[in-house]
Amino acid sequence: MEELGITSITSRSPQARGRIERLRGTFQDRLVSELRIAGASSLEQANQVLWDFLPRYNQRFAVPAAQPGSAYRQPGQGFNPDEVFCFKYRRTVGRDNVVRFGEHRLQIMPTNGRLSYVRARVELHERMDGSLAVYYQGQCLATKPAPPEAPVLRARNMPRVIPHSTDAGEAAGTATRTRKALRPKSHQHKRPGPDHPWRRPFKIYINKDGDKFAEQLR
After folding, report:
1. Residue 71, SS3 per DSSP
2. Residue 189 lies in a domain
3. Parallel, antiparallel or unpaired: strands 104-108 and 143-145
4. Tens of pLDDT along 168-200?
5. DSSP string computed for 123-178
6. Which residues span the domain enclosing 132?
C-alpha cells in the first residue's frame, strides 16, 4: 500500500464497526432469500442474482459522496504491477553467485556491467503466477536455474567392510586393526632404563671463585 500511495484508515470506533456488522448481517440474511426466490442452484446462477441485486441495493441505501468525481487515480508512467503485487523477500547471494529460495536455486548472470553479485543483499520477488525474479537496487537481474548441488561425501566413523572379503567377522577385525593403526601415537616419553646414561651419579665441584659445576661419573 505504501508503494501504491494508499493510506489505510482502520475503523477504530464502535459506530464504524456497527455499520460493518449490520451490512454483513443484511447480506447474509437478504442474499439467502434472494437466491431462494430466484431458484439459483449453480455458481453461475448465483453470480447473476448478485449482479442484479447490488445495483438495486446501492440505489436504495447509497449515500452521495461529499466530493464529486472519482477517487481512483491513474498509475504513474512506468508502473509495473508485477513488481508491486507480489511477495518480497530479502536474500544474500552465496559465494557461488546463487540465490536460494526454498527448493529453488537461481544463478545470477552478468547484469548491468557487473560479473558477480557475491554477498550482495538482493530482493527476491515471488509473483502471483509462481515465477521468481531477483532485484538489486531496483534493477531486475538476469537469472537462470542453477545446477543442483553435488553431494559431499565424507567417511563415516564406523566399521567398514573390506572388499572381496567373504567372512564378515574377519572384515570387521581387519577394519578394527586398521583404525588402531591409524590412531595417532601418544606423545608421552618413556622413563629411561636403569642402565641409561642419565642414571649415572654426578659429583659436585666448587672452584676457588665459589662456582658450582657437576661432573657425571663414568
Report:
1. coil
2. no
3. antiparallel
4. 555 556 666 666 665 666 656 677 777 777 777
5. EEEEETTS-EEEEETTEEEPEEEPPPPPPPP---SS--PPTT---HHHHHHHHHHH
6. 81-145
How much is the pLDDT for 14? 78
Q: Is residue 201 part of a domain?
A: no
CATH number for 86: 2.40.50
What is the rounded distance in angstroms from the CA atom of residue 97 to the CA atom of residue 108?
6
DSSP code, position 114: B
- Which sign, positive or negative, has the C-alpha torsion 185, 189, 193, 195? positive
CA atoms within 13 A on the CB side of 44: 0
Query: Residue 93 carries which side chain, given as an amino acid letter?
Result: V
The model carries a pTM of 0.50
- The 3-state DSSP class for residue 203 equals strand
